[in-house]
Design a protein that fits this description.
Blueprint (H helix, E strand, L loop, with lengths): L5 H4 L1 H5 L1 H16 L2 E2 L7 H5 L7 E5 L24 H14 L10 H6 L1 E5 L4 E2 L11 H13 L6 E5 L1 H4 L11 E5 L16 H11 L16
Parallel strand pairs: 2-3, 2-5, 5-6
Antiparallel strand pairs: 1-4
Catalytic activity: Hydrolyzes single-stranded DNA or mismatched double-stranded DNA and polynucleotides, releasing free uracil
Keywords: DNA damage, DNA repair, Glycosidase, Hydrolase
GO biological process, one term: base-excision repair, AP site formation via deaminated base removal
Length: 225
């Protein structure tokens, strides 16, 4: 399904009855309603970032539910689309930590290709209906994905932002990994801990300490083109 090592890691998962039911459900949803992201982009996070290459995990909730915004990577939007407010706050925190300029694009593919696994805990959503697919089984699947990452031998930094992401701490027991928790970057909660969390620097410090190449968090701006 995916085309890299995730296929062998998740092979048994894909054969389970609950996963087949998810596939049947979303097949019906895509055929009868407007659903995001585009069907061929549902597993983009997995396609861009093989399990063996994961260095940092950023957990989102469900995809953006407005036209053209979701493309299978948590918090990311395709080139040319408006930058959502939560992502703007992520960029503001990076600007504070590294003095990088705020980018013009919300596309985070550069991060994904470096080993930042941008996983939403629910992988699809109906247009205009946040959390509309939250009970179809996706969370069982992504919990098992997180468990698989917990078992990976390489040190991984997990960035858990907000109460929903924080619940996943119980799945992370491997002492090789670093788990960092703070509030969600949403405008409603960013000032409750996200701003000033220093997560991007702390993640890179942990990678460096473990002799793993750091993430270049800098994204392009018009001034750099």
């Amino acid at each position: 399904m995916i085309g890299n090592d995730w296929d062998s890691i998740l092979n048994e998962e894909f054969e389970k009855e609950y996963f087949k039911e998810i596939m049947e459900f979303i097949e019906e949803e895509y055929s009868s309603k407007t659903v995001y992201p585009p069907k061929e982009e549902i597993f983009n996070a997995f396609k861009f970032t093989p399990a063996s290459k994961v260095k940092v995990v950023i957990l989102g909730q469900d995809p953006y539910h407005e036209e053209g915004q979701a493309h299978g990577l948590a918090f990311s939007t395709p080139e040319g689309r408006p930058i959502p407010r939560s992502l703007k706050n992520i960029f503001k925190e990076i600007e504070d930590e590294y003095n990088y300029p705020i980018p013009d694009s919300g596309c985070l593919e550069k991060w994904a290709k470096q080993g930042v696994f941008l996983l939403n805990t629910v992988l699809t959503v109906r247009e205009g209906e946040a959390n509309s697919h939250s009970d179809c089984g996706w969370q069982t699947f992504t919990d098992n994905v997180i468990k698989a990452l917990n078992e990976q031998p390489q040190p991984i930094v997990f960035l858990l932002w907000g109460k929903q992401a924080e619940k996943k701490m119980e799945l992370l027991e491997n002492p090789n990994h670093l788990v960092l928790v703070t509030s969600h970057p949403s405008p409603f909660s960013a000032r409750r801990g996200f701003f000033g969390c220093n997560h991007f620097r702390l993640a890179n410090e942990y990678l460096r300490k473990n002799d793993i190449e750091e993430i270049d968090w800098k994204l392009s701006t018009t001034a750099q083109l």
